Amino acid sequence: MNVTRSRVCVVAAGGTGGHLFPAQALAETLLARGWRIVLATDERGALYADKFPAELRLALSAATAKASDPIGMVRAGLTVAAGVMQARQAFKDLDPAVVVGFGGYPSLPALLAAVGQKRPTVIHEQNAVLGRVNRYLAPKVDILACAFPTLEKAKPDIRANAFVVGNPVRPPIRALYDQPYEQPTADGPLRLLVTGGSQGARLLSELTPEAILLLPEAIRARLEVQQQTRAESLEQARKVYANAMVKAEVAPFFRDMASRLGGAHLVLGRAGASTVCELAVAGRPSILVPLKIAADDHQSFNARLLADAGAAAVAREEELTTESLAGALNALLKDPARLGRMAVSAHAAAIPDAAEALADLVERAARS
Fold first, then answer.
1. Which pLDDT score is estimated for 198?
2. Band of the pLDDT at 234, cuts 50, 70, 90?
3. Mean pLDDT throughout 161-168?
4. How many angstroms separate the Cα of 233 from the Cα of each of 159, 203, 205?
């Protein structure tokens, strides 16, 4: 079939991988449907966008500031206004059929420009709490899509009209949906994957090895740990694992996350939107530690998706100690049948084809 790449979709995202990775999954899906993709982001977003499938990248001025800083708010407003003007000029040349935003302040200039020019617009909220930028944009855009069935901080009419599509995941993660979970055998290895997230990783980096040191010897003898950790915590973590006689691979970043997630019996990590949705798609049991300083406590609400389904244990950061984490790990690692039940529950909570569902909404908006 010959595909004519004529329609342009501007994808506006940036700030963190949590915004960029779902945006990339959507872009790849639209690209396969014949769309041309343009990425609108800021300098920080460009750090995560080296593999983003866009024929053009728009660097738009964007900024944010705390409400308690009036001078900073004025400066941010002027910066965003400049970004809106940049986007308006670019859109006159590109004539995009639709503009899709993924939240965060880097998406704001592109969406405001599109709304001002009366172009079709879609926003996607990755978290279970409607973020500040998306909260502002939601009444102005044509379609609001969201990842979670709950949408805190959204007004009732906004929540009622939102489309629950899930969080788009990268193809290697999507492939795990069709890979069955193999629970540990009575005397086989116990594979634990520890992820940190882009913020607040110090707690898990430093606490996890010490907690594993407290596990029963019979558990430690079978344990195989793969842990993402802060660079400054690497040597200490390796030393603790060596003293505990635990087989461990410790690194600041794992590029082959899909294969590691696919082989894990249990995952310990934060409760970012991408993490929670990827755990569901992969069907993997987990212990989640929501980031306490996350805006509007959104990670706690994210974690509820899996906790309420019986797929995850949740440990509050302010209550977490070496002993309590060791207890949570031991309770699950010694009970393969429970891990198996949690895996089934995680799988049942998944929306594996979120990228396709969101692409359908984007095309619907473009035709309206």
1. 46
2. confident
3. 97
4. 42, 10, 6
Complete edge-to-edge strand list for the sheet that includes strand 312-314: 247-251, 223-228, 190-194, 266-269, 286-288, 312-314
* Between 79 and 137, the higher pLDDT residue: 137
1: pLDDT strictly greater than 60:
no
SS3 299: helix
214 and 359 housed in the same domain? no
- Per the structure, how many domains does the chain have? 2
Same domain, 316 and 201: yes
Amino acid 201: pLDDT: 64
- Residue 54 covered by a domain: yes
Range of the domain at 255: 174-348
What is the Rg, in whole angstroms, of the alpha carbon atoms belonging to the chain? 21
Which tens digits make up the pLDDT trace of 71-80?
888 887 888 8
Mean pLDDT of 144-153: 96
Beta strands 56-59 and 143-146: pairing type? unpaired
3-state helix, strand, coil in the chain (%, to 5): 50, 15, 35
Say if CB 313 and CB 275 are below 8 A apart: no
Count of other CB atoms within 10 angstroms of residue 291: 21
Calpha distance 103→138 (Å, rounded) = 10
Residues sharing a CB contact under 8 Å with residue 93, sequence separation 6 or more, in sequence order = none
Are 296 and 182 within 8 A, CB to CB?
Answer: no
More confident residue, 211 or 229: 211
- Looking up residue 306, the CATH number of its domain turns out to be 3.40.50.2000
